[in-house]
């Protein structure tokens, strides 16, 4: 299918002039984003930015994509229980089955530089469709699997590739459509993974029980292909309007201390998050709860993700994205140390802990808005490409570390709980230093300079940059506190 390139039109009064060859903010190079090739996602919304507007259609589309990628990936716990119980997979072991689940996440992050390059070369919609096809193929292939290596290639590698292309192509789109409600809109989109995980964990179990494993996979493949494919038809980016830079490895980002503080926050936060996600069911059974109680705890955890993320986003827009990311990370560490360790052995206490699951996964609703604060909208795609690549390590080895720390008998998970809480506290330390850098930036720059260097700079109706009004709220929030001059 030939890609359409819109013909240039004269700028109308009150509309934003198209931005082409926008200079790279770091290196002075010209942007090589979506401008050097035809892109399918050109739309009238690129010519005139309006807060929200068509952006809410984009939010709903990304929500559905997250539900049918990350949400489907959460249902692997149901498949794992079936594999261990049925013995239908030859040459298998519990460690091999666990590796299938971890491999899908690792591959999805590892492929992010390739997906980022595809966005710049072919456009957001085409990149998303590549992921849609790969995900459907993975489930179809898994439906015919009889050996463990079949699952490793299909449900592990192929699904991870599809997940990576879908996730990378959508994660940076929502912030382009919002300024004042950026965090809220982004968190609404990410809550799809929580609701999707809850829905498909229950639905997959019912399909396996009534239709068998093979047809459960095939039905999931059809659902994912139809829903994600439809979303790719309506999803629109504003890459040209914001001058997005889609370079897989932008070398100048490595020279920025604040970027590495941003990466450190995500690295340690993901270590804690993956352990909680994959360990909560086994923990419940290890302290004497039934399998159904463990499943209920996991379901409530997914529900808390779905409900908690929009709340986190709404609060972020009011009190500051970095502020709320730090507070949420700190709460995740405190609850791991106190609620999980001291109250988790009692079922009501465990339920209270999993209700704080929205804070355990605070990285997901906050990563794109905080990234925009740190590097700006133009460099956000390139920054996230490196970000996901670094996060391959914690995604791969977090549960391995947890299993190695687990002991036997009473308090088998004590070491795991302490390690998880420590990872969140370490993550909080990084985001606190990042917050100090942001305070320094706001205090030392004049009003005009803030407007030009603000990470939330968004073109106004007259084509001029306008800083986000939230900064006055941030300064009021910090009033009376000691301003850190040096990070």
Quick take:
The protein is an all-alpha fold and 487 residues long. Helices cover 70% and strands 1% of the residues. The chain has 2 domains: 210 residues, MFS general substrate transporter like domains (Growth Hormone, Chain: A), CATH 1.20.1250; 222 residues, Up-down Bundle (Growth Hormone, Chain: A).
Can you walk me through this structure?
With 487 residues, the chain is an all-alpha fold. It folds into two domains: 33-42 and 49-248, MFS general substrate transporter like domains (Growth Hormone, Chain: A); 252-457 and 465-480, Growth Hormone, Chain: A (Up-down Bundle). 70% of the residues lie in helices and 1% in strands. The protein contains 22 helices and two strands. A two-stranded antiparallel sheet has the order 1-2. Helix 6 (112-122) crosses helix 8. The chain is globular, with a radius of gyration of 22 Å. It starts with 43 loop residues before the first helix and ends in a 10-residue tail after the last helix.
Q: What would the keywords be for this entry?
A:
487 residues, mainly alpha, Growth Hormone, Chain: A, 2 domains, 22 helices, 1% strand, disordered N terminus, disordered C terminus, Proton-linked_MCT, MFS_trans_sf
* Main β-sheet, spatial strand arrangement: 1-2
How many domains, in number, for the residues?
2
Q: What's the level 1 CATH class of the largest domain?
A: Mainly Alpha
What is the architecture of the largest domain at the second tier of CATH?
A: Up-down Bundle
Looking at how many chains there are and whether they match, the oligomeric state comes to: single chain
- What sort of overall outline do the alpha carbons produce when their principal axes are compared? globular
The succession of helices and strands, N to C, reads: HHHHHHHHHHHHHHHHHHHHHEEH
Count of runs of 4 or more consecutive helical residues: 22
CATH fold naming of the largest domain: Growth Hormone, Chain: A
